[in-house]
Specification:
172 residues, alpha+beta, 3-stranded antiparallel sheet, two-stranded antiparallel sheet, binds iron/sulfur cluster
């Protein structure tokens, strides 16, 4: 159990960090497949911050928080290297994301932004069963939190403009 996430006052955020603390999409380091392409952005990129995370990263050494108009939300920009226990939720779940379906259920599917960039996000290149099990548990935590669900709806609407969301939601 790490130290960083315990600083959050938000109960569901703590639970999400705990669930996704010690699992990765692959058992081995998937960064070896792609030279860690997802950590190679420039100053215009950034990882979405879930509600409650901004306070933890603002002013933190090695991180900068920016508002992203496309998402209508804050993102964090990093130096390209970090301690696993200190990375934001978006990095823990990449290349997957959570989407809210019409019936209110929160589902796990590849992150549209990862397609064409991350080898794991392509159809058929599945993550480890343990990782996906934790992701589904995290989806249940998110579903019970109205603030997090509203955030996912907002971001999901922005992502819908980027790709075939309906098709992604059918992926297992
Ligand atoms: S999540 Fe995808 S892009 Fe990131 S290191 Fe793993 S394989 Fe590479
Ligand atoms: S915070 Fe860490 S995992 Fe996330 S993009 Fe930066 S270096 Fe990669």
């Amino acid at each position: 159990m790490g130290f960083f996430y315990r600083r959050f006052s938000d109960e569901s955020l703590n639970k999400l960090y705990e669930l996704l603390e010690d699992v990765t999409p692959l058992r081995d380091d998937c960064g070896l497949l792609c030279c860690a392409a997802c950590c190679e952005g420039d100053g215009n990129d950034g990882m979405l911050l879930f509600p409650g995370e901004k306070e933890a990263f603002e002013g933190k050494e090695g991180y900068a928080v920016r508002y992203n108009t496309a998402y209508g939300s804050d993102v964090v920009i990093c130096t390209g290297a970090c301690e696993r226990t200190e990375r934001p939720l978006s990095c823990r779940i990449y290349p997957y994301f959570f989407y809210v379906k019409d019936d209110g259920k929160v589902t796990v599917a590849p992150d549209i932004r990862a397609l064409g960039r991350c080898p794991l996000a392509e159809k058929g290149a599945g993550a480890s069963p343990l990782f996906l099990r934790r992701m589904r548990m995290a989806a249940l935590v998110l579903k019970r939190d109205p603030t997090q669900t509203a955030f996912l709806r907002q971001v999901g609407a922005a992502l819908t403009d980027l790709g075939p969301l309906e098709e992604l939601l059918t992926l297992k």
